[in-house]
Design a protein that fits this description.
InterPro entries: Lea14-like_2 (IPR055301), LEA_2 (IPR004864). The chain is an alpha+beta fold. The chain has three helices and nine strands. About 20% of the residues are buried.
């Protein structure tokens, strides 16, 4: 029988390298297709008017946003920066930080965010006097939740969820109309 020498070692080394490359290739394909990071879904479940006072035609307003965030990923979502804005005719008049915490795979987490108008930002807007006199003041809320999803506990993928909703406040009855979200 002929002696093979070092050839079995090279064959075993080539098979091991081929196996490692195959596993890495399969993980790469799966992470780009089936298990890729998907953006979380933010939903506005309701808006509650907590406080409304009109002084010198400028409203002092506090609203509670009832939000829910759904994680459609197969991995946990870890939010990093989360903000809610209250807009009047495209101008930011209120801001709040959204405290979310980690969301498990496929889970939905509900939270309440309180937004208060910064009165000094409303006073310089001439449209507010006409809206208050007309009885309906339009507002929009913009929410942005961004974070990371670790695919296969190796690849960190950044995902972002945004939401824009509008609602009108009836200053006479101090009620909020149904929010309309885009």
């Amino acid at each position: 029988m002929k002696k093979l020498g070092g050839k079995p070692q090279y064959i075993a080394l080539a098979m091991a390298a081929g196996l490692v490359i195959s596993v890495a290739l399969i993980m790469g394909i799966l992470s780009l297709t089936l298990y890729r990071g998907k953006d979380p879904i933010t939903m506005l479940n309701g808006v509650v008017l907590r406080d409304l006072q009109i002084s010198q035609d400028v409203p002092k307003l506090t609203v509670d946003l009832n939000l829910s965030v759904r994680n459609p990923n197969k991995y946990a979502f870890r939010p990093t920066k989360n903000t809610a804005f209250l807009l009047y005719r495209g101008v930011m008049v209120g801001e709040a930080v959204i405290e979310v915490g980690e969301i498990a795979p496929g889970a939905t987490k509900s939270m309440t965010v309180t937004l208060t108008i910064l009165a000094e930002r409303m006073q310089g807007n001439p449209a507010i006097h006409m809206d208050v006199a007309g009885g309906m003041v339009p507002f929009n809320t913009y929410t942005k939740i961004s974070g990371k999803v670790k695919v296969f506990r190796v690849f960190g993928v950044t995902v972002i969820s945004t939401g824009l909703c509008g609602f009108d406040i009836d200053v006479k009855s101090k009620t909020i109309g149904d929010p309309k979200c885009a």
